[in-house]
Write a structure and sequence with these properties.
alpha/beta; 2 domains; two-stranded antiparallel sheet; 22% strand
Length: 308
């Protein structure tokens, strides 16, 4: 019979990791539920369409009713004008396609990108749960890391938050195209798909365009202030979190800082141009600022477009 000995130190580390995870889950739950209740009540519901209109009843015509809704057959049979009433078939399926690659461990402002992603995902998930919508999660790097099939309820939201906080990704790179392609294959009905990534990847356009034809796609771009502007800090060693490659840069050089900023601006413009060509409105979130205001503004833009 094989015998083994439990390492007390590793056991204590595991318990501490579990307690820390629980604290983070509770903290995000409290913050995001308050955000949903205080700032986003009704915004989510107004921003996203249901799957269609369902007949509800026929009632007598009232002043102010749209004459186009008159049911002429019923009106002729009963001798008075009657109108058909419809209600929106509300239930939606919402899926968060979340980039958990190495670059999400970057952050120079208030938090890491992955922390911002977790809070944003929890906010959307709680909004969906409050509207009785299904919510699911696909996490990815350069491979699919996990999939939580869409379901309803607060327990489903908490599972998604825990998975995002506890994940130990196998891959370190990013392949948005493959992840979206896989998601498009497993989703059997039209869904709202939030693609949450820093979009530091290439070749994702074709897959995103294909998904956009079947689903309501919302690109969510996660950024950090230091990805756009390089301060003068002397000699700095940069490490690519996805490849591990290291480079020493003299940030005192104005020429290097200018080239860095120009390259970052060009990459952002290429990304935004590709999304505009697909008629997609990206939601850009920065680790240095609160995400509630841009999220609310995004919902309002969607609501205005819906009412046209």
């Amino acid at each position: 019979m094989l015998r083994g000995r439990i390492n007390p130190e590793s056991h204590r580390d595991a318990e501490e990791d579990a307690r820390d995870l629980l604290r983070r889950v509770r903290r995000i739950r409290l913050r995001t539920r308050q955000v949903v209740n205080d700032a986003l009540a009704g915004q989510y519901h107004a921003a996203f369409k249901g799957r269609g209109m369902e007949f509800e009843e026929v009632r007598p015509y009232q002043i102010g009713d749209d004459v186009r809704s008159i049911d002429w057959n019923v009106s002729a049979r009963l001798g008075d004008p009657h109108v058909k009433l419809f209600r929106e078939e509300r239930e939606l399926t919402v899926v968060l396609a979340v980039d958990v690659s190495g670059s999400q461990a970057f952050g120079t402002a208030d938090r890491f990108k992955r922390d911002l992603v977790a809070e944003f995902a929890a906010t959307v998930a709680f909004s969906a749960a409050m509207n009785n919508d299904k919510i699911g999660l696909l996490s990815f790097t350069d491979e699919v890391e996990g999939f939580v099939p869409p379901r309803k309820g607060t327990n489903q939201v908490m599972r998604i938050v825990r998975d995002l906080l506890a994940i130990r990704a196998r891959g370190s790179g990013t392949d948005i195209g493959s992840a979206i392609g896989e998601l498009d294959r497993v989703l059997r009905q039209r869904s709202v798909v939030f693609v949450v990534s820093d979009f530091l990847d290439e070749g994702w356009e074709r897959s995103l365009l294909a998904a956009r034809r079947r689903h309501d796609v919302v690109p969510v771009v996660i950024t950090d202030p230091r990805e756009h502007e390089l301060p003068a800090m002397g000699l700095v060693e940069f490490t690519d979190p996805e490849t591990g490659a290291r480079t020493v840069v003299d940030t005192r050089s104005r020429r290097i800082r200018r080239r860095f900023e120009e390259a970052a601006k060009a990459a952002s413009e290429r990304r935004d141009l590709a999304l505009r060509r697909m008629r997609l409105d990206p939601l850009v979130l920065d680790t240095g600022s609160d995400f509630v205001e841009p999220l609310t503004a995004h919902f309002r833009r969607r609501e205005r477009r819906r009412s046209r």
